[in-house]
Specification:
elongated, Tetracycline Repressor, domain 2, about 70% helix, mainly alpha
Length: about 240
């Protein structure tokens, strides 16, 4: 006599686990399609649940679910800049950008939709969530610069660079992810060091930051490589000094 086939054991998900399951499914869909193109039926199918169950967890419907998915993405992007304050600044930024650009690569269409706006589900709350990522990223960068009370010029420089990272990421997606991601990462690191140096020429606080940062760089590092490429170019302007 053959033994009966074993029954499959199902684990009942907690409220938070089920909610996370639905958010993850929604985020995956928003990552590849514009928010207005995603329906609650799509989310329910992707999560393997019924449409009424989605409504049970997100009584505000698609808008509430979109904001929850956006918050989840924002948390992930913010975590990209969470890097231990050890070693040369350029290498710390490179590791943070590796994580950031990996997120951009994975969530390409969704990343574009979130940052470019214009979605039918965009509200002041969703705009605040995205802006919160920028502000959190700025605070992470300032902490790496070891500045407790940044002045307006230094803070503006950091915020401008973060904006340029976003813009470069969107252009990179439009250009079918060219140049290679490693080249884009290195270029963005070099841009940060360059704009920081420019600000140092006008701001004593930033000048101190640059001196400290350069003191940790090595002759084999990316900043030294940048200097070797740029110095022959700017040397042609020596007659202006």
């Amino acid at each position: 006599m053959t033994s009966p086939a074993p029954t499959r054991a199902y684990r009942r998900l907690s409220v938070e686990e089920r909610r996370r399951q639905i958010i993850t499914a929604a985020l995956t869909l928003f990552a590849h399609r514009a928010p207005e193109e995603v329906s609650l039926d799509d989310v329910a199918e992707a999560a393997g649940v019924s449409r009424p169950l989605v409504y049970r967890y997100f009584t505000g419907g698609k808008q509430q679910l979109y904001e929850a998915a956006l918050t989840s993405a924002a948390d992930a992007l913010t975590d990209c800049f969470d890097e231990p304050p050890e070693g040369p600044l350029s290498l710390r930024l490179a590791r943070a950008l590796d994580r950031y650009l990996a997120f951009v690569d994975e969530h390409d269409a969704g990343f574009s939709a979130l940052l470019q706006g214009g979605s039918v589900v965009e509200t002041s709350r969703t705009t605040a969530i995205v802006d919160g990522v920028r502000r959190a990223a700025a605070e992470h960068i300032l902490s790496h610069l070891d500045v407790a009370d940044p002045g307006p010029r230094l803070r503006m420089t950091v915020r401008m660079w973060i904006t340029s990272v976003e813009a470069a990421s969107l252009i990179w997606l439009d250009a079918e992810k060219e140049p290679p991601v490693e080249e884009l990462r290195d270029w963005l690191v070099e841009q940060f060091m360059a704009v920081l140096t420019v600000t140092a020429g006008r701001d004593a606080q930033t000048a101190d930051v640059v001196r400290s940062a350069l003191g940790m760089e090595t002759s084999e590092g990316p900043v030294a490589a940048l200097a070797r490429r740029v110095l022959p170019v700017v040397s042609d302007a020596a007659h202006l000094l």
